[in-house]
């Protein structure tokens, strides 16, 4: 897995160490001819492209997605509607969808104790990408069709689903932070992060590396 970012705005160094487990990371400026050529070369031999931009943003830079590549897209507001072209992130979507109002305390807008829309949307996207790869490659001996597919999720849609779940208590007390010990965290050098969310995995096989320090190439094999 290779994460590709533009040089500006730069990722927050500690934030990447907290969330970048299992990813190599490189910096490319797709607005330059050399950066676009390198990115296209990577994409031509990729299995999956995951983007976190507004609909059409990557295509506007001139990047061409080959037919067999599975494309995963996560955006704030979805691919249609009057807000589709707007930027957004978790806390903004919490405010726009009413989460901040429901979580208010003493008349002040509130927020969920974690970036729940980011996390939930990410897991939904990952599940969709795995399904798309199975259909393409014939997982389970079913015979694949070789076709790439598009998988799209939005933070706004995830917020709507979460708000519609039964059993939600509007009068719940503030969330208590989990204990910061070996039951909930793992430590790599000077970095302590949350344990993997998936059951059966006690630690990350590849701790995060410093942001943007890897070469823009695929590893052999």
Describe this protein's structure.
The protein is an alpha/beta fold. It folds into two domains: 1-45 and 186-221, no CATH class; 69-164, no CATH class. It is built from seven helices and seven strands; from the N terminus they run βαβαβαβαααβαββ. It has helices at residues 13-19, 33-44, 57-60, 90-96, 99-102, 116-137, 155-164; strands at residues 2-5, 24-27, 48-51, 70-75, 150-154, 185-188, 191-194. The strands form three sheets. It has a three-stranded parallel beta sheet.
In terms of topology, how is this protein built?
Layout: E1 2-5, H1 13-19, E2 24-27, H2 33-44, E3 48-51, H3 57-60, E4 70-75, H4 90-96, H5 99-102, H6 116-137, E5 150-154, H7 155-164, E6 185-188, E7 191-194
Helix pairs in contact: 6-7
Instruction: Give the DSSP E fraction (strand runs of 2 or more residues).
Output: 5-15%
Question: How does the overall form come out from the CA principal axes?
Answer: globular
* Helical/strand content category: alpha/beta
Over the alpha carbons, how many angstroms does the gyration radius reach?
Answer: 19 Å
**How many individual helices?**
7
Assembly state? single chain
Helices and strands, in order, run as EHEHEHEHHHEHEE
Give the mean pLDDT.
91
* Share of residues in helices: 25-40%
Would you identify the regions where 5 or more consecutive residues have pLDDT less than 50?
none
Number of domains: 2
Number of strands: 7
Strand order across the biggest sheet? Answer: 3-4-5
